[in-house]
Amino acid sequence: MKDIVAIYPGSFDPVTNGHLDLIYRGSKLFDRLIVAIARNMDKAEPLFDMEERKDMLEAMTSQLDNVTVDIFEGLLVAYCIQKNANAVLRGIRAISDYEFELQMALMNHKMEPRVETLFLMSAEKYSYLSSRIVREIAKLGGPLNGLLPEMVEERVRRKIAQKQSYSTGTHLIK
Ligand code: PNS
After folding, report:
1. Is the Cα torsion angle 20, 30, 97, 105 positive or negative in sign?
2. Whose CA is nearest to atom 10 of ligand 1?
3. How confident is the model at residue 167 (pLDDT cuts 50, 70, 90)?
4. What is the pLDDT of residue 61?
């Protein structure tokens, strides 16, 4: 049997229980799984910087021996070749994800036929969950229970409070 090294790429801003479910399942399927955080120039105003996201992902996956966390820049397929990875893992939550995922998988395969994209269906209970929606609910003070690991939820709350106190200038008031 061939050694399968898979890359699970994403923004992970922040990592959710949906991402973790995919990481656990992926770690059972592949010999090695690299969770790769993309330095994405297009995304405006991230909640966490790259190192913070890496930190949280590492803490959440420390018990999985064959999983590592990394940050990458540039083309995903170039990163896959650099890491000797032969697969990309992505999750599909709903039909709405399919079109974008299909486009990315086909384009990546055209650029680099040595790399295959493999999909796992997201667990039903996380099928409505996304980092974007988590950020929005958190900014508006809504409930996050069950969506994020406890430690991540705490850091999200702290980060939002910090950002809000900076934007209103209350951090200057002693
Ligand atoms: O978590 P996300 O935001 O859905 O992840 C998107 C990601 C990071 C997988 C995608 O934007 C990506 O692969 N970026 C790297 C740049 C690249 O290779 N672009 C061409 C894709 S066909």
Report:
1. positive
2. 10
3. confident
4. 98
* Residue 2 confidence class, pLDDT cut points 50, 70, 90: confident
> Which residues contact residue 111 at a Cβ distance below 8 angstroms, ignoring those fewer than 6 apart?
75, 77
Ligand 1 pocket test target in 40, 50, 83, 116 with most atoms within 8 Å of CB: 40
Is 28 tagged catalytic? no
Instruction: Tell me what percent of the chain is helix, strand and coil, each rounded to the nearest 5.
Output: 50, 20, 35
Residue of 43, 158, 163, 171 marked catalytic = 43
Asked if residue 147 lies in contact with residue 16, where contact means CB atoms within 8 angstroms, the answer is yes
19 flagged as catalytic: yes
Q: What is the pTM of this model?
A: 0.94
